[in-house]
User: What shape does this take?
Amino acid sequence: MSRIPKENLKRYYTIGEVAKMFGVSKSLLRFWESEFDLLRPHKNSKGDRRFTPQNLEQLEVIYRLVKERGFTISGAREEIERQRRYQKEKEEILLRLRELKGKLAQWRDRL
Assistant: This one.
């Protein structure tokens, strides 16, 4: 179940709003920001964090790994990297398959 609101998405969320959404403390969010390179919320001129919907999705991944699945911080980092590599490989394979499909269609049309 996602903690991210599906309706009335805002452009930015404050750290307090995000902490409430995920049921965690603001200090835990700041800690996760320091531990996970993928999580980089925008900061305004006063230094206040502004979380985007994309940041919320990143936090959802971190939350699931650490809080729900019981990963350690380093284990969660490794799992996120593994998922990133898997997604990249999947995209590369799909690209190659599309290219092959196009070549096969060309050969079929020539026959």
